[in-house]
Amino acid sequence: MIIFDNVTKKYGNNVGLAEASVHINRGDFVFLVGPSGAGKTTFIRLILKEIEPDSGSISVAGKDITHLSRREVPGLRQKVGMVFQDFRLLDKKTVYENVAFAMEVVHRSKKDIKQRVPYVLDMVGIADKANRYPNELSAGEQQRVGIARAIVNQPRVLIADEPTGNLDPMTAMEIMNILEQINVRGTTILMVTHAKDIVDRMNKRVVAIEDGRIVRDEMGSSYGFTDDYDYVTSEEVDKYVF
Amino acid sequence: MFSRAGYALKQAFSQIGRNKSMYFISVLAITAMMLILGLFFVAFVNVDMFAASINKDYNVIQVYLDDSNDDVDNEQIRQELEAIDGVNNTVFESKEAAMETLRERWGDNGYLLDNLKDNPLPDSFLVYVDDKEAADTAATESVEISGVNDVTYYQDTIDKLSKVTHFVEVGSLISMVFLIVVSVIIVANTIKLTVHNRSKEIGIMKYLGATDWFVRTPFLLGGIFVGLVSSAVATGLIYVVYSKVVDLIGADIVRMLSVNLVSTDYLVKNLLVMFIALGVGIGTCGSIISIRRFLAR
Question: Where do the domains of chain A lie?
């Protein structure tokens, strides 16, 4: 679903990503972890074609996007849903309108919108809040709206950029449950996070980046960084997790 | 297709509604620009038409005869006139015929001429020449002929009018370029403000896979709307003012002086087409400029 083949991206003399090779399969749930400035954001921006790699190749949903033209970028982004840490909801639109907006943007019919939006709102558990405005919702509810908006167009991949960063542990776990349900239905999920407890508890595939290099890529793994983000070997992980 | 256009229109009017004052100021500024251009246009078309109407008569010289001439004298003068190089033809116009022409030209006010005791107009010959150079020569030589009182022709006036027309033309062009640039900047800034107000929404749209045209169209429509409203207001104002001016000067005076003013209908039709093209162009350019950098992010 997402293939990075020897991808390098530099910003002047600074390395964003160095010779990164990752193969994420359809239906995978992958945590992308690492210290701030390690290259996680570069990784996501490359998938969304916000920036170009200096070398190497990238494929998303079976299409080589390395040399994608500007006109083809919207098509790529329609296949990739995005969930943000700060939710990025439109304050002047209701919950329903925020989600419907995602469908209007890609020219879906009114009939489709009327059918699909309530279904998705129900799926993330906020069907009863459809007519509320974002500022009338809790942070967890706002993130549910963000997720509903990201999945309403049935993307092949869902990228969640620290989706639990602004949430309390209980709400964060509720959000993780929703993401897991979405994943079970076949959507590939790539989640950037610093939430050690969540990564450790979910027991999913973990790709760790440090200084632009992929230093670990393990199935059923754990967060693997200490609180000050020093990288630890897999042998050392156990003592932090258990 | 229609739903997409409808969506874009709805968005356009929604953002105009949210930035009413800025859009209003843009309409005012562009209307003012169009009014200035309209003034130049009015001056240009009228001077141009006057020049054209006189230019049409460049090959005619009017040679006025002494009142004391008899038919023999006049026939002698005709022969001398036709002997001049470049003269094609001569037509005699009696003082009675000249008075009749004047009476027709004055129209309803022609009765004023009835109070004249004597006809003050002289007999004359209309001398037709080949070209402007021949007109110069014929005029100089005609005035020397015995029994000729005066000679009039339009060469000087034509030359002066050509200069005026050229000046108005160049002036219009320079001010047009300057005013268009200013207008584009005004519209671009208005749209930029709207874009800035909607930056979060546009950012989300792009993440959701909106095409550049989907994002751009409402702003484009907003710019075109400003242009269209300005054209309508400017044309309307010029229509009202120009009609009043024509009324004030009075059709009779215009006719008496043999100076035609361009008709209000002709002026308004042409101005409307010109302003709409200009307004749509300015609106389009302004909005494309303002959102281009934003879309490239």
Answer: 2-79+155-241
